[in-house]
Each structure stands twice: as structure tokens, then as C-alpha cells.
Amino acid sequence: xxxxxxxxxxxxxxxxxxxxxxxxATHVRAGEITTKLISKTSLTYKITFTAYxxxxxxxxxxxxxxxxxxxxxxGSTADVRRSSRVYINGRTSSVNSYTVxxxxxxxxxxxxxxxVPNRNADTKNxxxxxxxxxxxxxxxTTIYVNAALLTNSTPVMxxxxxxxxxxxxxxxxxxxxxxxxxxxxxxxxxxxxxxLTDNGCVGRDIPAYQDPTRFGSASETGxxxxxxxxxxxxxxxxxxxxxxxxxxxxxxxxxxxxxVLIGEITRDMQIIVVDNKNQRPLIQPIPDLCVEAGTLxxxxxxxxxxxxxxxxxxxxxxxxxxxxxxxxxxxxxLIQPAYARxxxxxxxxxxxxxxxFTWQTGCNQIRVSPYEVVFKATDVxxxxxxxxxxxxxxxxxxVGPSVKGLTARPTATANGRAxxxxxxxxxxGTAGTTLAIYRxxxxxxxxxxxxxxxxxxxxxxxxxxxLNTTTYTDTSALKRGVSYSYRLVAVYPDVNGxxxxxxxxxxxxxxxxxxxxxxxxxxxxxxxxxxxTGQITVRWTRPLGLTPGDLGGPYQYRLQRAxxxxxxxxxxxxxxxxxxxxxxxxxxxxxxxxxxxxxxxTANAYRYRLEFYYTDATSGQLTRLDVTDAASxxxxxxxxxxxxxxxxxxxxxxxxxxxxxxxxxRSRSGPNGPFNKICEVSVQAAPYSFTDDGSDxxxxxxxxxxxxxxxxxxxxxxxxxxxxxxxxxxxxxxLTNYSQIICATPTDTTRPCPPVLSLDSLxxxxxxxxxxxxxxxxxxxxxxxxxxxxxxxxxxASYKLYYGRxxxxxxxxLTSVAVPTTRFDHTSLTTVAGCYYVTAVSQRGLESxxxxxxxxxxxxxxxxxxxxTPNGDGKNDVFAPLKCPRFVERIEFVVYNRWGAxxxxxxxxxxxxxxxxxxxxxxxxxxxxxxxxVHYALLDRNAPPQIIKSWVQIFRENTGSR
Length: 962
Prior knowledge:
Elements: E1 2-7, H1 12-18, E2 28-37, E3 44-54, H2 59-64, E4 67-71, E5 77-88, E6 93-103, E7 108-116, E8 137-145, E9 156-157, E10 162-166, E11 171-173, E12 177-178, E13 184-190, E14 193-194, E15 204-205, E16 226-229, E17 236-239, E18 245-257, E19 260-274, E20 282-283, E21 289-292, E22 296-304, E23 310-316, E24 341-343, E25 348-349, E26 353-360, E27 371-380, E28 388-399, E29 407-413, E30 416-422, E31 434-441, E32 460-466, E33 471-474, E34 483-491, E35 510-513, E36 521-528, E37 535-540, E38 555-563, E39 571-578, E40 588-591, E41 606-615, E42 622-627, E43 631-632, E44 635-641, E45 644-650, E46 661-667, E47 676-682, E48 688-692, E49 714-722, E50 735-738, E51 742-744, E52 756-759, E53 778-785, E54 796-804, E55 812-818, E56 823-829, E57 834-842, E58 854-856, E59 867-868, E60 888-896, E61 902-908, E62 926-936, E63 946-954
Parallel strand pairs: 10-19, 21-28, 59-63
Antiparallel strand pairs: 1-28, 2-3, 3-6, 4-5, 4-7, 5-6, 7-8, 8-19, 9-12, 11-17, 13-18, 14-15, 16-17, 18-19, 20-22, 22-26, 23-25, 23-27, 24-26, 27-28, 29-30, 30-33, 31-32, 31-34, 34-35, 36-37, 37-40, 38-39, 38-41, 41-42, 41-43, 44-45, 45-48, 46-47, 46-49, 49-50, 49-51, 52-53, 53-56, 54-55, ...
């Protein structure tokens, strides 16, 4: 409920007193544009511009306002003539309609605009106020044109956009917007618009517009002045005006369907603020209402006035099918008949004044969105005091009535048990309406909440039937002894592309428990696990709800079997005649298969069902009464793991094995046993599981705990416990069943522990310049120590040694050695630099994690002389390193003269310069400079080279023959 007050329209003489004389060209006070799709085969719309003219100071201009230019948003325009002019408010204003039919070229979003010259003068928040009559009036409406919308009309606003407020009191306006299609509406503030020309198609905000709070006083609660609109209800409120005068403002109504914006309409409205001591009338609160279609609504509306003045009650809304000019619209223009009335509305009454809102609702008014009615109370004070009014919104939700008279009774069909539903004809539906049928197990009575459509939680849809259907036979997976609850709803067609669909209220519950006239299977247990001679015992009850006198005897059981947990190909395996004697052994059967149908309990589960026959008294023939729900044997599966075996089991049975304790049995001696119970497993929901790690937690029959070995096979079987959940069958107690026997061998993924590796490394600090002289091949000596742990495999067969030349390398397999070897010499190396790790390999071929990584680093060394004599005497003829260079990979050598000119450049694994230039010319005796870049065979692949910059003296004196 929303409750607010505004002051009423001023009388004629007050408006005259407030407004100065203006030119005859000024006359527009307010307006909006509405549209309606009028064709089912084309994109043709009826477009109406509704304008409110000042008939007092702008009558001459209003007389001449016979046509305006419509801009349709698709590039076309039309000159549209006035179709109607209705005077309101004592002929001080008029409602003017301009209507045109327009067809759009195709789907799209179009903005329709109309410009009117000009507004009336003295609008305070459009300064300069004295010249507001020079501002053009522009409004627009945007529509989404799409044939998929089927029908679409913009909302119409049934409360005129002309009001008056009082200084210091909260002012509110509600447009009483109504959308005939049932679309959702949302509201937001905007700014009054103008255009650049008299026939302009594009609007723009009036630059001089000022928010009304600029002229506000303190709100009624004492805070700052506010101006806002409720986005859901459309209540536009100014709390509170602070100055006498005329004001314009605008707001937008958005139209939404299925969460998609399909249009928006702008209303530009005007109010006049006065000052008086009259108090507003009061409307007693009216709660929102929800009714079934077909209900006659009689809602009293009571108003009082604090000053004791008489009161007039009036109403606005689409349910009245009356336009904002007070004139009745053609049948079906807003809503389908019958239309609402306000008895004693629009007349002056002594207070407390009472009017009665009455509306005979109908099925064609069902829709998802509620209907909204706005009631207005106007006081009638002594003249010349102006009247004040208050408004209150009243929302009415019309829902589809429930399906009545639903009943359920048991029946039978050629395919077995069934439930026949019946209900009275449903008359509150249009073409395309269907009835949806829902079912759930259980008959707990949870009445639907008032005015909540649809089915309560817990139900499942089982069928949809045409509207004129009154019966339905349910044959889908019905179980004897189970109670079933049914409800129906009507599903209405989506005639407006998403706005008016929905469902009705749910019917009352119809509940039925199927009688237990058939036997009930209580056991399917595997006695023997064999490939061709398996054995399963099947047990059942006698018909729990049947005595020998109910139907003619003799009677007969016919047992059928299907292969697999979910098998449906049932074949007969036994026929058992019975007279239903209490002590007869006729409710058990041991299935051993046959010569033509071997029972392979090793490979398969089996499923059983039982037919029950009685002797028809008329024909004397055996006649099937019913068939039990099928029940399967327990199927056990195994999954070997590392020194473990994981078991999983399931059964397809009409009772529940959930929430019970199941027993697990194990044999260490093969499928012939003996079997020991090793665990009691509390299961929750299938599939059930258990992992055997060799432990035995049930020791009453002996403790067989021992770690599982990959060298042994273990056999298992499971005993399940279950119980029927229906109250009629729980008395049968706990039902036990054994699975088949299945064997498995665990795997063993236990790996050895990684060894600890060591390396005889060079001690560079202890080396002399002569160390490693003339050594060109090196050896790295490695040794390792095995490690053990209870979690590691101690049975080691060999070791793998991995090597990488550089520290950054991924180490690759170097060699593999058998136990008991724990040493290895890595020979024929050009450098000792390199990294190693070792792994242990078990007898099962499983490799341990890598050991620690050990690395050896080279000890580089290179010394160059300062003089040499390249005179061919075989002594000191080349410039080369002094003795014992270590771990040199490459030398880049460059020679310069004293002026910096490069004379020689060479590169190689060794250095032996003969004193010649790069072109082969002998260099004369003298001093030369050089740079040697030495790359060593180190662990770091990118280790920086050693740079040696120095000088060398060449002597060429011939110490021999010369």
C-alpha cells in the first residue's frame, strides 16, 4: 500500500490571479505520446499525442492548434490534425488528442517526437520565468518494433498531468499508468525537453532547467527539500515546495517484458504552488488485494477531512476503462469487460465520505502483473479557499482459480497397476490453456500459501493434458503400499509474447495409498558364485492385503528373471501353485538356472519379479491380479590399488539399503574360504564403498589383520541390510542379502628409498701450477649408500646413475649397475665439471626418487709468456701458454701494434701464434699488445670467459747460422 497527499487544482479565478497576460502563442502545459500495435500481420501502430492546453491565457493559440508534425523515428514525418478537444477543470484547461496510423518498414527501435510552440509563461524553474513562453515544448516516446511481440501498447496515464501544491506541504503525483498488455513498468526522473525548430524531431534538455528543490522549503520531517520518484509505484513527490508559482518537470515510464526493455514514454507535467491554511483530506488505508478470477470485489473507500469539509472520492485506473479526460473508452480499449465502477464516486459527501469500488472480475483478466487503481479524495472548502486532495494506490492481483474436485482412486490397466484421477471441468481458460498434472510420494498436507500460484515444492510434473480433459490415468512406475499425492494447475498461454502467461493456483491435494494385494519380494541373495552353476535364493511374502476369501482360488505365483541390475527382459523360471496356507513353503525359490539358461553369478547380476494370479469366479481362468516391483541381486565390484583393494556394491531393489550397516567379508585362501567378517560399514547412499588395507576391525571371528601383498589374491563378499520405507511394509523388518564372491590382487607401487650419493671432487686450493700437467682425460669417482624406511621397498635390484655436463642441464641416464655395486668411475672426460644423481630400482621395476645431486667443478688455469723468438730454430718459436694449462676449451687471440692497429686474430682450442700477421707476413722485432679471451670447461654453461690483456716482445735475431 502507498499513501500520500497532494493539493488540488486551483479554481479558475486563482489561476487568473497567478498568471500574467501572455501572448496568444503560449498555451502548452503538459503532454505525452502513446502508441498501440493494431495489426497482427504488419508493423502498424496507432500513435496518439495528448496535449494539455492553457484555455485561459492561451485560448486563441489553443484554437489554432489544429495540426502538428509527427516525427516517427524512421526518417519520415506527417502533419497530423487534432482529433478531439475536451475541456477540464472548469474549462481552464483542455485535453487535446492528435492521432495517426503509421506502418514501420521493419523491426527496430524508433523514437517518436512532437514539437509544439510554445510553453506558457511564468514557469519558475525554466528561467527567465517571464520568457518561458518562448521555449518550445517537446516530448518523445521510444518503442521497440518487433513482430514477435504479438501485441504491444505503451502504458496510458489516466491521471491528468495538471496539479497544484501548497507551500510547505509535501506534494505528490501518481500518473495512474496502466499497461493493457500486462508489461512491467518502471519509473525514473527526466528533464523537460525543447527543440531547435518548430517542427523539430530531436529533443534536448532545456538548458535553463532547475531542479524543483532549488525552490523548496524544509521537508515535512524537517530535513532538506527532496524531489524523487518511486521506480516501482511511480509516486512522484516534492517534499516540500517553498515558493508560490508555476513549475514543470518530466519523468519517464519504462516498459519491460521478460526482462527486456521494449519501450519508454516521457510525460512532461505542470503544477501550480499556492499558499493557504486548508488541511488535506485523509483516506483510510486500503490493503492490496489478491482474488481468484470470477470474484466480485466490493472494496469500501473512506475519506475524512481534518477541517470538517465535505469530500469527493474519485478513482483512476485501467479497470474503469475511462480515459484521462473522464470519457469512457470503446469496449476492450484498456481491459476486457467487465469494467469496475466506483459507487458514490465523483459526488460531494458529508464526511466521513464512503465510496465502494466494485469489480466483477473474469477469467480474461488473469495476468502476472497486478492491476493498480488510484483513489483521490478532494475536500470542498468554502470559497475562495482552494481545494486540497490526497491519493492512495490500491493493487489488485487476479490469479487463475484452482482446479476443483480432484479425486484419485486405484485402477488397473493391461500393463499393471494405475491410479485414475478425475476433476470437474475447468472453465477459466482461453484457447491454448492446458492442465499440468504433478505427483509426489507421500501425503503430507501442506496447504498452498494464499495468492501463491503454481505447485508447492516437492512435486514432479508427470503430464500435460488439454483444457477440456477431466480424467487422467497414471501408470508411471507406481509402487504398491506407497502413498501418492496429486495436484493440478492450469497453464495459461503467453498471448502477449511474455506478459500475460503464468499458471493458476494449485488444486487441493488428492492422495491415495495403493492397496497391497500383491506379494512383496523380501530377498534376492547369492548363494553360490559360479560361471554356469550359480545359485540365488528369492523370497517373498504372501499378498499382505488379501485373504483367501477375497478372490477365488486356487492361486498361483509366477517368478520371472532378467539379466543385469537394470534388466527388463523378464523370462519365466518358475510357476508355484498355492492356496495361501499359512505354513506352506511356497514363498521361496532357489534359482539354480537350467540347461538352457545357465546362472552365471560370476559375471552377472540378476533381477526378479513375481506375478500373482487368482481364479476368476466367472470364467474359472487364472487371472493376473498384480506384479511385484522387481528386485536385483547385490552386485559387488573391486578396484585393486597399492596394497589395497577398493570394494563398491549396489542393488536395484524396491526397499532401501541406505542408512544401514553392511558387512564386508574377506578370504585370504581363495573363493572357497573361509571368509571372515572384517568390517561393519555404515553406508549412506548408493553406490556403497569400502577400502580394504588388510585390517580386520571385527575380531569376534578371529583377527586376520595383515598387510595386503601384491603376490596374493583376496576374495570378498558383502552382506547388505535394507528395509521398506513405506509404513505398511516396515513391519517386514530388516532384509539381508549377500553379493556374489569376487577376488582381486592388490598392486604394489611402493618404491625404494633414494640413495645418498657422494663424489670425489677436486680441491682447487690445493693444486700447484704443475698439477694435472699433460692430463687430457679425467675421471669422476662416485659412490652411494642405500637408505631404508618402513614406507620404502627394500628389495633393490639395480641402480641408475644420471649425468649432466652443465648445472642447468636435465640429467640423462649415464649407466645402470646391478646390486651390490655402489661405486662408479666416470672416465674419459675432457673436464671434471658435471653433475650426478642416482636412483634405486626395485625388483618390481619401480624406480625411487632421485638422490641428492652432486656436482664437480673444474679448476681453470692459464699463464702466457712475455717474449718469444720466432726465428725457426725450434726453440720458443711460437707464442703459447706456459706449461700445464687446465680445462681450456677455446682461446680467442687478437694482436695489436703500438698504434692500436689489429695485426692478427685467431681462435681455437689451443694458442700457438707464430709471430705473423693475419695475411702471413712476418712481424718485425718489437713490442706488441694482445687480448686473449679464454673459455674454460666449467659447470656454468654461460660462465664468462677470462680476459687477458698484456704485451709480448718479439725477437728475431738468428742465434744459429746468422
